[in-house]
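Hey, weird one. I pasted the Putative lumazine-binding sequence into the form twice and got a warning about non-standard characters only the second time. First submission, copied straight from the form history:
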Amino acid sequence: MNKIFAFLLLSGSLCFGQNKEIEQPVRTLFTAMKNADAGLLRTVFSETAILQTITKDGVKNQDVNDFINSVSKVEKNDLDEKIIIEAIHTDGNLASVFTPYAFYFKGKFSHCGANSFQLIKENGAWKIQYLIDTRRKDNCKEIQ
């Protein structure tokens, strides 16, 4: 019985640690946005990352470098995206992270939605390979 308990405890600790590693680039993305730190922001994406937004007119693509440049032009604390990590799924060097969010610009609520991240593990580090999000102004829940 003690061996089974120890195995379950160790398994949970390993999964928790792996989830923290996977969460790190996602959390760093939003820290970099809040700090208007283009250099830090660049570190979270793979070389071939794709950014997309689902709009009422369909799917809109955004170039990663354009996104990084736009973030670098705002003042620190202008961009504040508050997230809740609801789910993390992994299979080897692939991870999926789902995060509902509320976005604030210069302290005022702008919109909410959900982010769906696909991450890959490259050279021992998790990187964002694909990010798609939704955006809306209604039916938003408060995120602290």
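That's the output from the first submission. The warning seems to come from a hidden character in my clipboard, not from the data itself. Residues 5-16 have pLDDT under 50 and may be disordered.
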